[in-house]
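Lecture notes, part 5. Sequence design as translation. It can be helpful to think of inverse folding as translation between two languages: the language of shapes and the language of residues. The source text, in C-alpha cells, appears below.
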C-alpha cells in the first residue's frame, strides 16, 4: 500500500479500536481517528481518479496563477491540501458520487463531539461511526479496493454496528407512527437532533397523534428537543445537499419556511408540496392566478402574492 492509503486504513482501524475499548476517555480519540481515516481515504480516491497527475495538483487547497517567463502563466498550488469541508465538493468535481449529506453530517458530528461530548459519549460515538459507514463503503468502492481485506476485523465491526444503528433509527421512528402527516412524509428518515446531529430522536408517548403535543428526546445525547425544532432540523438535514445545489445554481429551494406556521417545513419537490408541520398548501393568487410559494406569497395574506398585495395596499 502507498503511504496515503496506509495512513487511511490505520486511522480507521485505530478509531475502531478506540471505540471498542468502551472507555469514555478514548471516545474523542475514536472520532478523531475515524474522521481522519475518511479524509485520507477520500484523498486516495481523488488521486486514483487522475493517476498521471501530480498528487498536489489533485489535492491542493488553493491554486494561483504565476508568470511562466514566456508571456503566459502557470498554475501553482500551495502545500496545503483540502480539508474535510472541501472533500465532498472535490469528489463531485472529479465525478465521484458519494453521500454528500452523510459527509456533512459526519463533519458536524465530529465538531459537536469535539466541543460538547468529550465525556460519557459512548452513544454519540457509536451513532457517528455508524452514520459514516456508508461513506467508508462508497469510498472503498470508488477506489476499487476490498475493505474486508484491508480493514479486517474493523470492517466486520462496521457492518454489525451499522445494523444496530439502523435498528435504533427504526425504533425511534416507530414512536411517530401515529402522527400521520409527519410519519408519511418522513417515511424512512430518522428524526434529526439539532444538538448532536444524529437521527435518534424519539417521541416519549408513541400513542400521541398531535404534533404540537409531541415530547421529543434524543436517544444519543439525551437532549429534549422542541417538536417544531425537531421537524425543521430533520428536513434541513435531509435536504442539505439539494439546498446547497439550489443556492449555487440560483434555483428554487426544495425546503422553505412555511408562511403559516413559520416552521422550516414547507416542501417544493417533485414528490411533495406543502408544509409537513401544519399541512398548509398554497394555491394560486386570487388576483393574478400565479402559483404561490413561500418565496412569492404575501405573508400578511396567504391567498395573494406579495406583488398583488403591495399594489392593493398602494391603491388604498
Amino acid at each position: 500500500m502507498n503511504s496515503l492509503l496506509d495512513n487511511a486504513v490505520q486511522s480507521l482501524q485505530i478509531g475502531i479500536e478506540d471505540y471498542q475499548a468502551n472507555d469514555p476517555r478514548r471516545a474523542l480519540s475514536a472520532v478523531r481517528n475515524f474522521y481522519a481515516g475518511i479524509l485520507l481515504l477520500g484523498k486516495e480516491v481523488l488521486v486514483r481518479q487522475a493517476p498521471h497527475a501530480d498528487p498536489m495538483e489533485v489535492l491542493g487547497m488553493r491554486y494561483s496563477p504565476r508568470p511562466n517567463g514566456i508571456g503566459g502563466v502557470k498554475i501553482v498550488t500551495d502545500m496545503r491540501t483540502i480539508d474535510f469541508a472541501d472533500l465532498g465538493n472535490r469528489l463531485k468535481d472529479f465525478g465521484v458520487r458519494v453521500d454528500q449529506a452523510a459527509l456533512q453530517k459526519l463533519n458536524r458530528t465530529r465538531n459537536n463531539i469535539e466541543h460538547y461530548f468529550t465525556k460519557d459519549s459512548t452513544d454519540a460515538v457509536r451513532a457517528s461511526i455508524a452514520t459514516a459507514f456508508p461513506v467508508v463503503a462508497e469510498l472503498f468502492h470508488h477506489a476499487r479496493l476490498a475493505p474486508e481485506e484491508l480493514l479486517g476485523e474493523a470492517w466486520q465491526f462496521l457492518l454489525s454496528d451499522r445494523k444496530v444503528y439502523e435498528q435504533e433509527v427504526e425504533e425511534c421512528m416507530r414512536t411517530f407512527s401515529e402522527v400521520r402527516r409527519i410519519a408519511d412524509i418522513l417515511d424512512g428518515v430518522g428524526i434529526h437532533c439539532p444538538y448532536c446531529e444524529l437521527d435518534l430522536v424519539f417521541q416519549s408517548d408513541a400513542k400521541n397523534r398531535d404534533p404540537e403535543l409531541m415530547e421529543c428526546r434524543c436517544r444519543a445525547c439525551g437532549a429534549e428537543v422542541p417538536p417544531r425544532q425537531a421537524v425543521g432540523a430533520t428536513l434541513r438535514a435531509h435536504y442539505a445537499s439539494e439546498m446547497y445545489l439550489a443556492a449555487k445554481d440560483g434555483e428554487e429551494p426544495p425546503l422553505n419556511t412555511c408562511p403559516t406556521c413559520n416552521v422550516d417545513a414547507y416542501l417544493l419537490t417533485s414528490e411533495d408540496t406543502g408544509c409537513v408541520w401544519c399541512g398548509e398548501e398554497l394555491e394560486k393568487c386570487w388576483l393574478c392566478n400565479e402559483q404561490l410559494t413561500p418565496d412569492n406569497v404575501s405573508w400578511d395574506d396567504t391567498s395573494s402574492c406579495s406583488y398583488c398585495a403591495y399594489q392593493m395596499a398602494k391603491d388604498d
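The translated text above is only one of many valid answers, since several sequences can fold into similar shapes. The first strand starts at residue 63 and ends at 67.
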